[in-house]
């Protein structure tokens, strides 16, 4: 995957990357090209294959972000390379 994301290596996470960066022709638009960090869309889906994650929750660093249980709907979030996403089960941090 080549990402520096933390906690996204677990088999129950599916990530779809789509760059949000648009190339700008600086000569035509009079704007400069954004050379800063690029955002991506990460889609989180619990496959339901591992009962250990039936009541999981997703956190950005230490901040609750979303439920991530077996029957919870998938969701997408704009994020950046280097962001730290963590999984918790029964209030305890578990590795991705």
Low-confidence stretches: 1-26
Going across the major beta sheet, what is the strand order? 3-2-5-6
**Sequence of secondary-structure elements:** HEEEEEE
Major β-sheet annotation: 4 strands, antiparallel
Task: Kindly name the structural category.
Answer: mainly beta
Summed up, the helix count is 1
Q: Calculate Rg over CA atoms.
A: 16 Å
Measured as a percent range, the helix fraction is under 10%
From the spread of the alpha carbons, the general shape counts as: elongated
Question: What is the total tally of β strands?
Answer: 6
Strand content: 25-35%
Q: Mean pLDDT across all residues, rounded? A: 74
Structural commentary:
The chain is mainly beta and about 100 residues long. The protein has one domain. The protein has 1 helix and 6 strands. A hairpin with a 2-residue loop joins β2 and β3. The longest helix has 4 residues. The chain starts with about 25 loop residues before the first helix and ends with a strand. About 10% of the residues are buried.
Q: Could you provide a short overview of the structure?
A:
The chain is mainly beta. The chain is built from one helix and six strands, in the order H-E-E-E-E-E-E. The chain has one helix at 26-29; strands at 39-44, 56-60, 63-67, 75-80, 85-89, 92-94.
């Amino acid at each position: 995957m080549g990402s520096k994301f933390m906690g996204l290596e677990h088999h129950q996470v599916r990530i779809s990357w789509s760059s949000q960066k648009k190339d700008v022709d600086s000569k035509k638009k009079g704007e400069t090209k954004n050379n800063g960090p690029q955002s991506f869309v990460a889609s989180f889906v619990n496959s339901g294959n591992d009962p250990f994650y039936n009541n999981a929750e997703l956190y950005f660093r230490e901040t609750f972000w979303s439920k991530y249980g077996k029957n919870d709907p998938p969701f997408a979030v704009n994020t950046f390379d280097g962001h730290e996403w963590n999984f918790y089960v029964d209030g305890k941090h578990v590795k991705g």
